[in-house]
Amino acid sequence: MLGTLRSIWNVFLHLWHKKETVQYPEEKPYLPPRWRGRIILSRDADGGERCVACYLCAVACPVDCISLQATEDEHGRRYPEFFRINFSRCIFCGFCEEACPTYAIQLTPDFEMAEYKRENLVYEKEDLLISGPGKYPDYNFYNVAGTSIAGKDKGEAENERPPVDIRSLMP
Amino acid sequence: MQDRNGIEGADMNVLIGIIVPLGILFSVLTVAAGLIWLERRLLAFWQDRYGPNRVGAYGLLQPLADAIKLMFKEDWVPPFSDKPVFILAPIVIVITVVLAFAVIPFAPGIVVIDLNVGLLFFLGMSSLGVYSVVLGGWASNSKYSLLGGLRASAQMLSYEVFMGISVMGVVMMAGSFNLGDIIEAQRIGWFWIPQFFGMVIFIIAGLAETRRLPFDLPEAESELVAGFHTEYSGMKFGLFFVGEYIGITLVSAMIVTLYFGGWLGPFLPPIVWFTIKTFLFICGFILLRAAMPRPRYDQLMSYGWKILLPIAMANLLITGALLLRAM
């Protein structure tokens, strides 16, 4: 009986406690930098597209919401002809970001993407591409990768030795 | 001139006879609507939340939004139900609780009928209200509803017994069943001190009567979906809801009338005192809902019959003995 009365009193005292509610539209919640929200495609520091259209994100996606088509530019650089993410299917698991070898696809701390029409949730490449490098400001795939493109031959990347002539007998 | 004044006097009586019931009906229904907002807000505060605060200032228009929503919902009568009874049940609960307000004296002169058996009328009306729940549960023709209705009938039967017994102490002390007389008899001292146990039992029985949370076994949304009103939708469900909230107001008003001096109080006008006291008890009911868990069904029954009934009987006997000795 006394315990019941005490619990009633304790509940009453909660009238003056701090409220847990975050009053959302006026008061934004804190989102950590690694929050898995709206997906973007980032660019290199010099403005080139990072995506090399390797399809790894589309393969990793458990709900198959990413579709793209690879093509090559005149310098032999691969890039996606189109890149489409259907956010009405996306579950924001972040597997695409983990699979990406070039840090091109990244998840951002933003969840405010509600739409009145379902079709508007299908984001095309121009909706996904941002102008900056995202979370990895200095990274450039072609500067560290061994592939040769116009203006950079094999062995010219960072931390890369010149290629070994496999037909030579010299060490 | 004299003639005209006489006619005006008669007109005034007729006018008062129309205005008072309409005013009471209007304010009771408004309070019931406001309680939906008040309960959600208070419960939220006691759970460290804000509750509805978006629709209008402080969310005050939330009941209006809810009412519009309920009105436009599909009013579905299940094809397997007993249709006439199914439709009748929610009407019964609202009619009985509103009728019971007829005998409540809000202030000297502000009462619909000054009935000599006002207290019995209240008890009778609250007993009739049980039919709504039982018939609703039966006519729905579904398992959960039937279980809810069964629980309701058992709970009401057992808690009504000592609700009646607990108020008899007040009746003996006031020497009347008339609620106005009972309030007048409290000029020397409110009855909650000499009738403390009677008051506690009446509050508990009143809680059970309105099927509020510690005693909401007929509804029990965690076990029985929604108990007796599982199959109800739209405004029929809304009527059950309104009936419950008017019931809370009614029981609070009765507690105030019987044990806390009704409209008696210094400085402020009587109607204000009555409103303040009733409001406090309504808030108390909501606090109980926020703080107390629902007992098991057998606990409810044994608590009623083994603890509350003996206390009510003892209270009745001791009050009677002391009154006889004083005479």
Descriptive account of the structure:
The complex is a heterodimer of chains A (171) and B (327). Chain A has helices at residues 2-13, 56-60, 95-99, 125-128, 141-144, and strands at 39-41, 66-72, 78-86, 105-107, 122-123. Chain A is an alpha+beta fold. Chain A has a domain at 31-144: Alpha-Beta Plaits (2-Layer Sandwich). Chain A is elongated and about 95 Å long. Chain B has one domain. Chain B is 69% helix and 0% strand. Chain B contains ten helices and no strands. In chain B, α3 packs parallel to α8 (234-259). The longest helix of chain B is centred in the first third of the chain and has 45 residues, at 2-46. Chain B is globular. Chain A binds chain B through residues 4, 7-8, 10-12, 14-15, 17-21, 23, and chain B through 45-50, 287-288, 290-292.
Compose a concise summary of this entry.
The complex is a heterodimer of chains A (171) and B (327). Helix content of chain A is 18%, strand content 14%.
Fraction of residues in H or I helices of chain A: 10-25%
Summarize the biggest pleated sheet of chain B.
none
Query: Would you count the extended β strands of chain B for me?
Result: 0
Give the helix tally of chain B. Answer: 10
Question: What structural class should be given to the helix and strand makeup of chain B?
Answer: mainly alpha
Oligomer category = heterodimer
Order of helices and strands of chain B: HHHHHHHHHH
Q: Average the pLDDT over all residues of chain A and give the rounded result.
A: 87
Instruction: Please give the radius of gyration of chain B in angstroms.
Output: 21 Å
Roughly how many Å apart are the termini of chain B?
54 Å
Q: In the CATH hierarchy, what is the class of the domain at 31-144 in chain A?
A: Alpha Beta
- According to CATH, what is the topology of the domain at 31-144 in chain A? Alpha-Beta Plaits
Count of runs of 4 or more consecutive helical residues of chain A: 5
